[in-house]
Amino acid sequence: KTDLDQSDADDSHNESHPRLELSTPHSMDHSLLRPVSPMLLAKGKSDSNPNLLSQSMPHSHGLHSQHILSVDMFTKEQLNDLFNLAQTMRVYVLKDRPLDHILRGKLMASIFYEVSTRTSSSFSAAMQRLGGRVVQVDESSSSVKKGETLEDTVAVMAGYADVV
């Protein structure tokens, strides 16, 4: 689920900071990507500008409240917008600028049934860097072990968390 829309009523108290809810597809076609220079993103913007991040974000992308299941769901323009945003966030991290306002108060349920240290750690680190919290669910503590379907487990977790 991806939400880069700044007009969400839940965030009306903090309109200068966009909301993000992210999950990634399992595989990506990297042939669509272009490298983006941090200098391009920062052109005309200064470090003292508190709206640097929100200025670089797309406003109309058609992904609001959508479940992302495949890279095929994205247009080339949407992918470029997402990767430009990722590059802007990378610059923020490198400059020790805070990003923890973006997902403050949001909860991610992280469910991995196969060991994937790098993937689970990167999801968790990203969520926490953006101000969110993470609940880790593994196979040994899941009701799937007792016969519940994966679909039911995900549906239940989706009721508790903002993103699964």
Automatic annotation (TrEMBL):
One of its GO biological process terms is:
amino acid metabolic process
Which Pfam families does this UniProt record tie to the protein?
Answer: OTCace_N (PF02729)
Question: What domain of life?
Answer: Eukaryota
Q: Which InterPro entries match?
A: Asp/Orn_carbamoyltranf_P-bd, Asp/Orn_carbamoylTrfase, Asp/Orn_carbamoylTrfase_sf
Q: Does Transferase count among this protein's keywords?
A: yes
Task: Kindly list the GO molecular function terms attached to this UniProt entry.
Answer: amino acid binding; carboxyl- or carbamoyltransferase activity
Q: Which residue windows does the record flag with biased composition (Polar residues)?
A: 47-58
Where the record annotates domain Aspartate/ornithine carbamoyltransferase carbamoyl-P binding, the positions are 66-164
Q: Which keywords label this protein?
A: Transferase
SUPFAM superfamilies hit by this protein:
Aspartate/ornithine carbamoyltransferase
Q: Where is the composition biased (Basic and acidic residues)?
A: 1-20
Chain positions covered by the region annotation Disordered: 1-31, 41-60
Protein name per its UniProtKB record: Aspartate/ornithine carbamoyltransferase carbamoyl-P binding domain-containing protein
Organism, per UniProt? Answer: Homalodisca liturata
Where is the organism placed in the taxonomic lineage, from the top?
Eukaryota, Metazoa, Ecdysozoa, Arthropoda, Hexapoda
